[in-house]
Design goal:
This protein has one domain: TIM Barrel (Alpha-Beta Barrel). Helices cover 35% and strands 18% of the residues. The chain has helices at residues 7-16, 35-45, 60-70, 83-90, 104-111, 134-137, 156-163, 183-197; strands at 20-24, 50-56, 74-78, 95-99, 117-121, 146-147, 167-168, 175-177, 180-181, 208-209. The strands form two sheets. Strands 1-2-3-4-5-6-7-10 form an eight-stranded parallel β-sheet. The longest helix has 15 residues, at 183-197. The N and C termini lie close together (8 Å). The model is unreliable at 201-213 (pLDDT under 50). Residues 2-191 form the N-(5'phosphoribosyl) anthranilate isomerase (PRAI) domain. Keywords: Amino-acid biosynthesis, Aromatic amino acid biosynthesis, Isomerase, Tryptophan biosynthesis. One of its GO terms (biological process) is L-tryptophan biosynthetic process.
Length: 213
């Protein structure tokens, strides 16, 4: 459940059964949140809910300082980033490396077996609410990768059937306005995702309804 900006929405997501919350620290985002609010929201969600800090083209020091202040448990990285930079972050936090459809095949080869790094496939415009062509991406979609991009209660089950992702991420289709969650949509999304993920049979993959951009 990404784009979390308040304690109330964090508690809502946790109560609905989300496994992870996403807190966006990229300055360009409409859902920008402070490290203090993210930390408070993470505490409100409880210890069983993962907390993902979302960054885009930000310096190594800034990412690490913000992640520590917010007490996140993983870091999601957007943008054209050097492999060494990603590995440096992965030395401190599990990393979700976000890629676009045209980057997927190359990224799957680059990061296959690299400790601490999991791929996340997202739309060209993160948070834009536009779904991907899942069927066209099936051949290149790596086992265990996360899936984002235009997911909501009405289409998440189909997306899971098409790609069998390790986890799913949603934001724009779960909102009343940018940064403000729609309780009914949040509950419906988690129920639909969990219902479909429970049918996915893939060894050594933790299938969970989760968050990120």
């Amino acid at each position: 459940m990404c784009g979390t900006t308040s304690v109330a929405d964090a508690a809502l997501a946790a109560q609905a059964g989300a496994d992870a919350l996403g807190f966006i620290f990229a300055p360009v985002s409409k859902r920008l949140v402070s490290a203090q609010v993210a930390r408070e929201a993470g505490l409100a969600a409880g210890p069983t809910v993962a907390r993902v800090g979302v960054f885009m083209n930000q310096g190594l020091g800034e990412v690490l300082r913000t992640a520590e202040a917010a007490r996140v448990s993983a870091v999601q990285l957007h943008g054209p980033l050097a492999g060494l930079y990603v590995k440096q972050i992965a030395a401190y936090y599990p990393v979700l490396r976000v890629v676009r459809p045209e980057e997927l095949a190359g990224a799957a080869r680059e990061w296959d077996g690299v400790p601490g790094v999991t791929l996340m496939l997202d739309a060209p415009e993160p948070g834009g609410g536009v779904p991907l062509d899942w069927a066209a991406l099936r051949a290149d979609f790596p086992a265990g990768a996360w899936l984002a991009g235009g997911l909501g209660p009405a289409n998440v089950a189909q997306a899971i059937r098409e790609l069998s992702p390790g986890a799913v991420d949603a934001v724009s289709r779960l909102e009343l306005s940018p940064g403000r969650k729609d309780p009914a949509a949040v509950r419906a999304f988690v129920a639909a995702a969990r219902g479909e993920l429970s049918t996915v049979k893939r060894p050594d993959v933790d299938n969970s309804a989760a968050c990120a951009d």
